[in-house]
Predict the 3D structure of the following.
Amino acid sequence: MIKTVIVGAAGRMGRMLVANVAANDRFELAGAIEYSGSPVLGKDAGLIAGVDALGVAITDDLAAVLAKKPDVIIDFATAGVREAASAAVAAGAAVVIGSTILTQEDRAEFRRLADNGGRIVVAGNMSVGVNLLFKLVKEAALILGTDADVEIVEMHHNLKKDAPSGTAARLAEVVCEARDWSYEQDVRHGRVGVVGERTKHEIGMHSLRGGDVVGDHTVIFALNGERVELTHKASSRNTFARGALRAAEFLAGATPGLYDMQDVLGLK
């Protein structure tokens, strides 16, 4: 049994993760964390997730939960991710991070933790299909070369706070890596007004928001006379939760290091 702690247990993804842990006989819910002052503190994590009571009360005391020596924490929260990862590694727990709002300082800290014995998976999207999309986009970028104009379109629900999505940003990074370009210099976020002709040295990025769309991503490779479009559409957040548990299982047998879902799925 993989003793698992869910950080952000009352959020949309947190509830889905708790439900998936409860339904998987290889996992045991060892803790459920929420922010100080949350109205669900003290309530059973299973009931909040819409499943049977699990006998695990939601708490804001991560240190107390880590003192019980869980195997892994899964964190999709938007705040305090760096601090939670540091505390988990110090306690000997592996870390799965699915947050899409990470700073360069966060990523540097994850690397430092991994270099000092931490086992960490960081992925802005844990869907198996999306991670296959990353691989296919890399291959298309290498084969089609700079003759293809690349445009990325992503759509998410109207409650999403960040844009572009972490997945769309990663797709642009994949193309940049294949072309030896720079994300910061060569990605163009939207167009408005008289902007002139499209240059050959740019990647267009476009973010749509509306309704309850879980996540759609399309990478367009447009050439003269033809175009290739690679698309992934998520219809349920459950795909992200299943991917996170797969990452947790991967870390159970992994050596210290900083990994992503390409590592988890053997796509490298």
